[in-house]
Structure formats: C-alpha cells, structure tokens
Amino acid sequence: MIDGADPEADELTIGEAADRIGVAASAMRFYESKGLISSRRTDGGQRRYARDVLRRVAFIRAAQSVGLSLEEIQSSLEPLPVDRAPTKEEWEHLAADWRPRLEAQIATLEAMRDRLAACIGCGCQTLDACQVFNPGDKAAERGPGAQYFVLDDD
C-alpha cells in the first residue's frame, strides 16, 4: 500500500468479492462462519474483505472440488496469517504438507478409473474371474469402504 493511501480503497465488499471469485455472497458468509476467511466490519456493519481473501477462497474451492473436507481445509489454513496475504514460503509449506494426500488421492482415482472400466466392460462370465467379487466379505480385512477400488499394496 502507498503511504497515505486509504486502506479501505483496497478492500472489497461482500458482493465484489463474491463476484470476483464466482461464488454466492452466502458462500462468503458460510466460509467466514467456519473461520476459513475473515472480514472487517465498517461502522455501518458491512463486511469488507482484504484482497488476499480471493486467494484463500480459490484455495478453499479447489480443495473442496477434490473432495477435501472443510475440517481438513481449515486445519491447513490455520497456520496461515489472517491479517495479511500469506508469503510464497507459507503457501509452499502448505503445498508440501498436502502433496502426499493429493498424490494418494490421484493414485486412488486412477485405480478406480482403470478397475471400474475393466469391471463394466469385462464381460466376465464367472465370479471367479471378477476383480470386485467379494466372497465371504474378504475385503473387510482391508478396512471399510470400496477396498477393491483402492490401490493394492502388493
């Protein structure tokens, strides 16, 4: 900011921020209620957002689009400052923390794609040849969920 410049001139109203990000104003209020973003209030009680909220909401939306929960997102954002834009190093640290989770999710999605395509198109005539048949619930030993669509360790 330039010395003597009005700090409010660089802030966004809820409508401006929502339009710029491509979300509804209600989504901004929701993210704020969950502690994912913050605003300051004017004397008249209106929300004003610093421009760095654009980056935060973009991150939140990207994380949600790959299936991460709001709790996971909030936990990742907690170490970042709320009163200023995070530095490049702070974002890099967050990215490094997420990399293993995202790589595992990518591998699971690729395995599901490959196995699901094989299952739908295989035309197997016997359950002995089926990759997802689960006699005696043997897959339960591997844990909950669709275990045959998750990558094998062996």
Strand fraction band? under 5%
H-E order:
EHHEEHHH
Low-confidence stretches: none
CATH class of the largest domain: Mainly Alpha
Oligomer: single chain
Report the principal-axis shape. elongated
CA-to-CA gap between the ends?
56 Å
Count, helices: 5
> Which structural class do the helices and strands define?
mainly alpha
Mean pLDDT: 79
CATH topology of the largest domain: Multidrug-efflux Transporter Regulator, Chain: A, Domain 2
Range of helix content: 40-55%
- Sequence of strands across the biggest β-sheet: 1-3-2
What is the makeup of the main sheet? 3 strands, antiparallel
Count of individual beta strands: 3
CATH architect. name of the largest domain: Orthogonal Bundle
Number of domains: 2
- Nearest-angstrom radius of gyration? 23 Å
Report on this structure.
Helix 1 packs across helix 2. With 154 residues, the chain is mostly helical. It contains 5 helices and 3 strands; from the N terminus they run E-H-H-E-E-H-H-H. The longest helix has 34 residues, at 88-121. It has 2 domains: 1-86, Multidrug-efflux Transporter Regulator, Chain: A, Domain 2; 99-154, no CATH class. The protein has helices at residues 14-21, 25-33, 52-65, 70-77, 88-121, and strands at 12-13, 40-41, 47-49. It has a 3-stranded antiparallel β-sheet with strand order 1-3-2.
Label this structure with key terms.
154 residues; Multidrug-efflux Transporter Regulator, Chain: A, Domain 2; mainly alpha; single chain; 47% helix
What is this entry, summarized?
This protein has 154 residues and is mainly α.
